[in-house]
Amino acid sequence: MRPKNSIFTVLLVEDEPADAFLVRMGFKENKILVDLKHVEDGVEAFAFLQQEGAYHDAPCPDLILLDINMPRMDGLTFLKKIKTMEPLRRIPVVVLTTSAAESDVFSSYDYGAAGYVVKPLDVLQFMEVIRSLENYWITLVQHPNF
User: Which residues carry this modification: 4-aspartylphosphate (predicted)?
Assistant: First the structure.
């Protein structure tokens, strides 16, 4: 189990700078203390999790927030890949995307997503989404210790 006084690490996999900014702002505005790490696609996220190259000392995240539509390696491919690997498959992944397509929702859960959230267009609603993620994933849920 994660020690209660340790900082919660979130890996944000997001290629859109404006959306990454909103997530960062959401944590800050809601006064949520997290160690937010940001990478821009599935290839970079996989390197982060494998502690390769520039990420040789990267921490294991407690939660991954994953966009679907990204260059090089999209979110669904990344999700499918890590959910077949020990111990990466135990890291909860919440898909945070603009896509409300039923096929993306089904695929995300089929590949092991712990949740699926459609990004709201309204900034205040986006802040509420981040607050809700904090309430559930950081405050309430028990996580394994990696």
Answer: 67
